[in-house]
Amino acid sequence: MKNFAIAAALLALTSVPAFAADPLVGTWKTKPDDNGHFGFVDIKPCGGAFCGTLVKAFGADGQAMQSDNVGRRIVWDMKNQGGGHYGGGKVWSPDRDKTYTSKMDLKGDAVAVSGCVLGGMICRNGGTWTRVK
Question: Which domains does the chain have, with CATH numbers?
Fold first, then answer.
């Protein structure tokens, strides 16, 4: 039993750096929403998936703005499915106040975001988010 506990602890410690090195981890600039606003979403590992929090908001004029949504989780339960594909997660859209069952497709410094509500009856292309450097 002691050996099992040691092995489990070592496995947990060695898997964290690999998760942190996932190419989805980082800060992403969203596509402008229906109001022309966009934001920076910081994506990090959380549990066995990825979550993203809005860390900065911008108005249609490109200037930083105050928003009650800063600090709010925008992405959660997004899982790496291999080959740059992520799914099984949710993305909340502040402009429509809707939560979409979503997927993300990563290619370099761009991630295409899309999702659906009402069991796939209404879908939305969330556009392409770009990595903030």
Answer: 23-131 (2.40.128.520)
